[in-house]
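Example 343, ligand nicotinamide-adenine-dinucleotide.
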Amino acid sequence: MSMEAPIKLGLIGCGGIARAHLNACLQLSHLFCIVACCDVRKEMAEKFAQSAGGASVFTDYREMLSHAEIDAVDITLPHHLHAEVAIAAAEAGKHVLVEKPMANNLAEAKSMVDAADKHGVTLMVAQSQRYMAEHREIKRLLEEKTIGQVLYVRASVDQHLASIRPPNDWLFKRSLAGGGSVISIGVHKIDLLRWLIGEIVAVFAVERQSPINPGMDCEDISVAILEFEKGVVADLASLYAAKASPWGELMAIYGTEGVIHNIGGWHINSDKVSEWKGKFVKLEIQHEDPFRNELEHFGNCLLNGREPLTSGRDNLKTMAVVEAIYRSAKEQTRLSLSEIWAT
Ligand SMILES: NC(=O)c1ccc[n+]([C@@H]2O[C@H](COP(=O)([O-])OP(=O)(O)OC[C@H]3O[C@@H](n4cnc5c(N)ncnc54)[C@H](O)[C@@H]3O)[C@@H](O)[C@H]2O)c1
């Protein structure tokens, strides 16, 4: 189902990250016109509607779906609402962009894909890391085998939840967020690694709950060993218990002929390029706004009737890895992804 620009968009959820989506849409006025803003906090919906130049205001997404003249919705809500709202939007014939993680769990994510298929609408997951210029460049370097064959990847996302969110925020609760640091921030790297390295076939994970996030009822420390289809192995630390961090987000990729890392910016060391041989050299990569790139991709896919890079269907595989990490930690065993798909 393709359409004409500008696409009439409804924003559902006018909190933290929605501001980045709003700003991106305002820069992409040839693609999007924000016609409705919805938040249970009416003042937030009003603020967004005003920034969008006078969009309609809603406090109930169902009202918005039935009354606003919209082609698509952009869902930036707590995780437990992603599936419910995306399915309602698909049933109303609206295309859907939904923030990461796709849903609280794989079963919910599958029902979102089924609803989008049934109603012939596009479903895209806002996995912003795949829309970063830096990661696009790293993917190109890996595809050109600049560091040879990839052997091993080390990745970490370090945050301290209690320092960045108010007490009792929904991110502290398994029922509202689907889990802790794995589903909320580790998911960024799981999705990125799938894109850069290939599909993950097995995981082994350990998780802990630290004492430094009072009121949290799920993991704030997780370490997962990820095995990829081509024999590559990675370790991923998802930390909501990092009081401080040397890197914030770490990625180090070890190949047969070099290494790439992102400590203090992206660096490369490669036997294959004389100026990069025997030392790390900083890569000059022009930063781009990933949210602008992501929204632009969503808009272009709707106009051209194309499946997005981070489609709902694609992101089932990211959700399956999240599920495998949780099950592996709980069962204290190595889990093959085929066991996740079989259940
Ligand atoms: N891509 C990224 O880098 C990135 C960064 C941060 C958050 N996120 C994701 O964005 C999503 C939102 O996170 P956030 O940090 O902006 O959360 P937030 O708590 O700041 O915002 C959520 C908003 O949803 C509203 N809301 C709650 N229930 C509602 C309902 N039933 N109907 C309408 N509005 C409702 C809240 O009032 C709030 O304004 C999450 O999926 C999160 O994981 C992504």
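Summary: Residues 12-18, 38-41, 44, 61, 76-79, 81, 99-100, 126, 128, 184 surround nicotinamide-adenine-dinucleotide (CB under 6 Å).
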